[in-house]
Write a structure and sequence with these properties.
Elements: E1 5-6, H1 9-26, E2 31-35, E3 50-54, E4 57-62, H2 64-75, E5 80-86, E6 94-100, H3 104-118, E7 127-131
Antiparallel strand pairs: 1-7, 2-3, 2-7, 3-4, 4-6, 5-6
Helix pairs in contact: 1-3, 2-3
Length: 132
């Protein structure tokens, strides 16, 4: 891979699919995708939204509203399923693990929609593959 960020929907999905393929080819532990914060004052102190993928599992942190949107999104992908929800008392959210066995393009589409539908980013958000 020679590029690590994109802000166009088509370019982002290609970037994600390429990162997934690289992750699989390298047999790396996981890959991480982060998105720039949307420009609002509500999220200045919180970390940028992120999504990890390892083997056939997505991992992400969500708040209650995001969890509802994530469940709706998973319903759009019949071969995907939420396998684990973990909400430690000291955390302000839920860590979710989703089993997702599919090709790189379908996984990339899901990843993009997480940032669009779950984290409520605009269509031109910038995403970074930060670790492969």
């Amino acid at each position: 891979m020679t590029r690590f960020d994109a802000d166009d929907p088509q370019d982002r999905r290609k970037l994600f699919a390429d990162a997934i393929a690289a992750h699989r080819n390298r047999a790396s532990a996981f890959l991480t995708i982060e998105a720039d914060h949307e420009a609002d004052a509500d999220n200045e102190d919180s970390p940028a939204p992120w999504l990890q993928f390892a083997e056939s599992t997505f991992n992400l942190d969500v708040d209650d509203g995001e969890l509802d949107r994530l469940n709706d999104l998973v319903d759009d992908f019949p071969t995907f399923r939420v396998d684990q929800l973990e909400s430690p008392e000291e955390a302000e959210g839920t860590n979710v693990r989703i089993t997702a066995r599919s090709d790189a393009n379908r996984l990339a589409t899901f990843a993009d929609r997480v940032f669009l539908d779950v984290y409520d980013h605009e269509a031109d958000y910038r995403a970074w593959v930060t670790e492969i």
